[in-house]
Design goal:
Elements: E1 2-3, E2 8-16, E3 21-29, E4 34-38, E5 44-54, E6 74-77, H1 79-86, E7 91-95, H2 96-99, E8 111-119, E9 122-127, E10 131-135, E11 141-151, E12 171-174, H3 177-182, E13 187-191, H4 194-197, E14 207-215
Antiparallel strand pairs: 1-2, 2-3, 3-8, 4-7, 5-6, 5-8, 9-14, 10-13, 11-12, 11-14
Keywords: Lectin, Repeat, Signal
Protein name: SUEL-type lectin domain-containing protein
InterPro entries: Lectin_gal-bd_dom, Lectin_gal-bd_sf
């Protein structure tokens, strides 16, 4: 089922039979400004395929002469290009000016078509001075969506902890350290401690909260062995 707008969004009609996940396809015509992928606020993008060119005569043909839509054997693979900009993001906008830097078929009116799924990240919470353990199944690697060390809830990591040390919930320190340590690995451990992340709020018992997804390794990336820190 097609919905036509500035960017044509093909509704989630393709069912991934093995996982039950619906795929969405976004098509953006050559002369439009932005190619946009978006998931719900609690989900992130997992790009499945993308190409720029033309595979049929009907897409993005309104008002165009027949000769500019007749070449349907024209497709430049854009998977790596879109993954680099959109993978594991909740929303992604790719300027069409960047897409148009490649021209797989001069004289043909083209479009970019991207198929993606929206997946819900896993969340791992580790109390201060304990080890966070992130892991993915065989054949997949970690991609960190977000991470922070601090406290934003008075009801998390409270066991055997003085009441006063759990009341400062205005203590949220986003960090890139987890992504730098764990991205691209199947398993990763990292200590939730001030020595690793600094101390964003003294006299508060903190925790490390990590949201991550398990993704297929990048085809262009050399194999990374399991790692710990």
């Amino acid at each position: 089922m097609q919905h036509f707008s500035a960017t044509m969004l093909l509704a989630a009609v393709c069912l991934f039979m093995a996982s039950g996940i619906f795929a969405e396809t976004v098509i953006t015509c050559e002369n439009e400004r932005v190619h946009t992928l978006e998931c719900q606020s609690n989900e992130v993008i997992s790009v499945q395929s993308s190409f720029y060119g033309r595979k049929n005569r009907n897409t993005c043909r309104q008002g165009k002469p027949r000769w500019v839509v007749s070449n349907t054997d024209c497709a430049q693979d854009m998977l790596d290009f879109i993954k680099e900009r959109c993978e594991s993001e909740q929303r992604c906008e790719v300027p069409m000016s960047e897409v148009r830097t490649v021209d797989p078929c001069w004289g043909t009116y083209k479009y970019i078509e991207t198929e993606f799924t929206c997946i819900t990240p896993m969340t791992d919470v580790t109390c201060e001075n304990f080890m966070a353990k992130l892991r993915c199944g065989r054949g997949q690697v970690i991609s960190v969506v977000s991470a922070y060390y601090g406290r934003r809830s008075s009801s998390v990591c409270t066991l055997n902890c003085p009441f006063v040390q759990t009341q400062n919930v205005d203590c949220e320190n986003p960090t890139d350290i987890v992504a730098e340590t764990c991205n691209g690995r199947r398993r990763c451990t990292i200590k939730a401690s001030n020595s690793v992340f600094g101390d964003p709020c003294e006299d508060t018992y903190k925790y490390l909260e990590v949201s991550y997804v398990c993704v297929d390794p990048d085809d262009s990336q050399t194999h990374l062995s399991d790692g710990n820190r």
